[in-house]
């Protein structure tokens, strides 16, 4: 029997009534091949420090150029990979790519921390710190090259385990950020004992902020709360200079968003170091 090609499979899936469910299955089924055949790649989005205007950290964001479906957003395929129990493969791949990139950048005198997004299963994994340590050792890199971003809801599913992992990662020099802060339906009480370095306020909190005083009050209070607890504060999704100025006045430490820089390929970033305020060391 001849193995069905991806094209045949896609056609069969699309004949089905429930197209969206078939699309999901198709995406899940093509993920292993995507990992093996370089269909995935990373883009890097710089963060601007509002204290000195430069950039000391970028976030790695995954992209998938699917041969049949075109560009698939991580917002679509990451939850599917989680659902299918394949997210550990994606996370390991992303970590590996970032460390290889860091070896190249450091050889070029580019010293910048790169943040990798993790999912809930990664954080529940008891040997996450050991795995990260081994990966760093393989590339002879210090923990300072790396940050890990975890969402609030991810933390809350097993706060004790997550806290244990965070403590160990920070001992290695890896920074830990709480991503999508404010969207996780969790109580604020957990923040008190959380040993993370940074809080990233979700861009949902920018909605209506230019017009509504109440929206501004929520943002100011969130920034001040996080800072009082000792976290560095980054606001995500900043798209204008007006927002940048407002957030600087509110005390935010960093902004990330299209106003400062879009997510870009490594080469593109290397060509734009001066504008981005990324120092190059001899
Ligand atoms: P996130 O970690 O909160 O990343 C921020 C998202 O906001 C990114 O979407 C980024 O492209 C987008 N963004 C940046 N600036 C702006 C802006 O000015 N305006 C607007 N509207 N959006 C902006 P992206 O790249 O589509 O990623 C979506 C989510 O997928 C990420 O949210 C993250 O949770 C997840 N993700 C991405 N890469 C990975 C990965 O390697 N592993 C895992 N587990 N999750 C990933
Ligand atoms: Mg993130
Ligand atoms: Mg986020
Ligand atoms: Mg987000």
Topology:
Elements: H1 6-15, H2 19-36, E1 40-49, E2 57-66, E3 70-72, H3 74-83, H4 87-107, E4 113-117, H5 120-124, H6 128-138, E5 146-151, H7 152-156, H8 159-171, E6 175-181, E7 198-201, H9 213-228, E8 232-236, H10 241-250, E9 254-256, H11 266-270, H12 273-276
Parallel strand pairs: 2-4, 4-5, 5-6, 6-7, 7-8, 8-9
Antiparallel strand pairs: 1-2, 1-9, 2-3
This protein binds ligand C2E and magnesium ion (3 copies).
One magnesium ion binds at residues 59, 117, 149, 179.
Structural key phrases:
binds magnesium ion; 282 residues; alpha/beta; eight-stranded mixed barrel; binds ligand C2E; globular; single chain
At a glance:
The protein is α/β, with parallel strands linked by helices. The chain has helices spanning 6-15, 19-36, 74-83, 87-107, 120-124, 128-138, 152-156, 159-171, 213-228, 241-250, 266-270, 273-276; strands at 40-49, 57-66, 70-72, 113-117, 146-151, 175-181, 198-201, 232-236, 254-256.
């Amino acid at each position: 029997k001849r193995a069905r090609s991806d094209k045949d499979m896609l056609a069969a899936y699309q004949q089905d009534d429930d197209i969206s469910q078939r699309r999901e299955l198709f995406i899940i089924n093509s993920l292993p091949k995507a990992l093996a055949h370089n269909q995935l790649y990373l883009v890097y989005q710089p963060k601007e420090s509002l204290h000195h205007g430069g950039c000391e950290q970028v976030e790695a964001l995954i992209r998938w150029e699917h041969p049949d479906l075109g560009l698939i957003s991580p917002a679509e395929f990451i939850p599917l990979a989680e659902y299918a129990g394949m997210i550990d493969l994606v996370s390991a791949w992303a970590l590996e790519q970032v460390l290889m990139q860091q070896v190249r950048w450091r050889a070029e005198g580019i010293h910048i921390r790169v943040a990798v997004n993790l999912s809930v299963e990664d954080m529940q994994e008891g040997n996450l710190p050991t795995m990260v340590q081994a990966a760093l050792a393989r590339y002879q890199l210090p923990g300072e090259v790396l940050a890990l971003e975890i969402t609030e809801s991810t933390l809350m599913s097993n706060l004790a385990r997550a806290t244990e992992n965070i403590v160990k990662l920070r001992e290695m020099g890896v920074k830990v950020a709480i991503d999508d802060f404010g969207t996780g339906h969790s109580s604020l009480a957990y923040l008190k004992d959380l040993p993370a370095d940074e809080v990233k306020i979700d861009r949902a909190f920018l909605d209506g902020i230019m017009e509504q005083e109440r929206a501004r009050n929520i943002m100011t209070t969130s920034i001040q709360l996080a800072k009082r607890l000792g976290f560095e504060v980054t606001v995500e999704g900043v798209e204008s200079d007006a927002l940048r100025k407002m957030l600087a006045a509110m005390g935010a430490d960093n902004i990330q968003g299209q106003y400062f820089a879009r997510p870009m390929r490594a080469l593109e970033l290397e060509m734009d170091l001066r504008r981005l305020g990324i120092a190059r060391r001899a």
